Amino acid sequence: MSMSTVEPGTRLADRFRLEDRVNESSGATFWKAIDEVLARPVAVHTFSPDFERQHEVVIAARAASRLTDPRLTQVFDAADEDGVAYVVSEWVSGESLLDLLSAGPLEAERGAALVAEAAEAIAHAHEHGLAHLNLTPNRLMWTSGNTVKVLGVGVDAAILDAAEGLTEEERAQADAEGLGRLLYAALTGHWPSPDDDCGLPEAPVDDAHYCTPRQVTAGVPNYLDTITSRILGLRKSVEPMDSPMEVAEALAEVPRPAPASVSTLPPAVELRSEPVDTIGRPPMPPMIHRPAPRRSPALSRFVLTVVVLLAMVVVGVGAWTLGKSLGTEPAVPTAAPSATAGEEGQAAGKPVEVKIAGATGFDPLGDGEERNELAALAIDGSATTDWHSETYGGPDFGRLKEGVGLLLDLGKETRLTQAVIDFGASGGTVELRTGASPEPDGLKTFLTRENVSGKVTFDLNGSSPTRYLLVWFTELPPHNNGFRTMIRDVKLMGVKE
């Protein structure tokens, strides 16, 4: 099949059926399609026969598929074979910033909250070597699920060939300016550039410079006016911002929209290429301040121990002072050391609970980690928290990799006898691998279990002493509109060598 035959009804990879042509630009055609395997809508880019950057777009899309920030659209598939190149990603339903601005500027902090979320997502992309370089109001979405999505990271830059010849610093500065223009638009309803046909009126000019947001719209807070001016260089006396991370840090304190309950979500609004009437749209949820990071259980135990020791010191000093005042010095009682229950069990060779020194979201076949920020939640002793994988387009990880997992570090070589793992209601196929090294080649499969769900007990008797235990998923269970697995809690038993 050649690209000249791509038309409504065409099936790609024997599963993605093209339905509606949304728009065409720069040799790329954007489609709404149906994933016939999962019976859900997807977004598909195809390319004309004379499009010269097909290979670069596919490479960028595959790199974007490894990004883990949920505010970036997920890439499900990308191929360049048999004369056909295409990119398949999630279909986002909701309203773009351009749609939201059709009724005028947003309330200042609500608009800034959208851009703050986008800045954090774009900063994540830059940490992994990808840029956007086409940040316009129709690329920032407020979804029907009341979340922020940034469309086209990596792919847009490759289609437009926008990154050619730019250094890493220049790409970072370009995306920082793009975020600044989005912030300016959200605060004023105007676009501070003459070059982009983005659907908004150009910002007014004063003395050959664009007016600041406060000059255009009454009531814009001074700190948001200053941040916007710093990003776009509207005031020469303020320090500029040159990267998405700087923009994200500057907007970190902006209150964020509270996520809506699924039962109260408004009906989904399809992403459209034509203007939509937004006068009667439901209001955005109330703004909330993000809570401070939760203190880890290990830190809490350390603080408690310090408090108890300080209390013992205070009591001891008080007793000594009182004894001295009475002419005698009471003996300071000392507690004879006693073995803990775990030590007694180990001394007797009985299985005892093994303390897990650390946990890592393990993705050696992708970008090296898999939701690593959640890994500690699988070993915190609470079944109300969990580590979970990214959401993929199929049980085979969307054909992007062979597996992901949770790597547990025991701190030293230990002979394990049992592992009790709470998978919630996730399911899937899992392997338990052991080894002395965290490298993939150093971890050997000890057992495999299919259709795991709930709390599962694995018998590890007969396994060799190990420093690491890898819970490795080779097949994912369904989760919402995709496939994802989870681990709520892990408890290990072993004996002392």
Structural class: alpha+beta
- Return the CATH topology of the largest domain: Transferase(Phosphotransferase), domain 1
Count of discrete domains = 3
Mean pLDDT over the residues = 82
Number of strands: 26
Helix content: 10-25%
SSE layout and pairing:
Layout: E1 11-12, E2 16-25, E3 28-35, E4 40-47, H1 54-64, E5 75-81, E6 84-90, E7 94-96, H2 97-100, H3 108-127, E8 140-143, E9 148-150, H4 155-160, H5 168-188, E10 205-206, E11 209-210, H6 213-216, H7 222-232, H8 244-250, E12 256-257, E13 287-288, H9 297-325, H10 341-347, E14 352-354, E15 358-363, E16 368-369, E17 387-388, E18 404-422, E19 429-435, E20 444-449, E21 455-459, E22 466-475, E23 478-479, E24 482-483, E25 486-487, E26 489-495
Helix pairs in contact: 3-5, 3-8, 5-7, 5-8
Descriptors:
alpha+beta; serine/threonine-protein kinase; Jelly Rolls; Transferase(Phosphotransferase), domain 1; 497 residues; membrane; Phosphorylase Kinase, domain 1; globular
Write structural notes for this entry.
Residues 326-349 are annotated as: Disordered. Keywords: Kinase, Membrane, Receptor, Serine/threonine-protein kinase, Transferase, Transmembrane, Transmembrane helix. The chain crosses the membrane at residues 302-323. 24% of the residues lie in helices and 27% in strands. The protein has helices at 54-64, 97-100, 108-127, 155-160, 168-188, 213-216, 222-232, 244-250, 297-325, 341-347, and strands at 11-12, 16-25, 28-35, 40-47, 75-81, 84-90, 94-96, 140-143, 148-150, 205-206, 209-210, 256-257, 287-288, 352-354, 358-363, 368-369, 387-388, 404-422, 429-435, 444-449, 455-459, 466-475, 478-479, 482-483, 486-487, 489-495. It is of the alpha+beta class and 497 residues long. A hairpin with a 2-residue loop joins β2 (16-25) and β3 (28-35). Strands 14, 15, 16, 18, 19, 20, 21, 22 and 26 form a 9-stranded antiparallel beta sheet that branches. Strands 1-2-3-4-6-5 form a 6-stranded antiparallel beta sheet, with helices on one face. The chain has a 3-stranded antiparallel beta sheet with strand order 7-8-9. The longest helix has 29 residues, at 297-325.
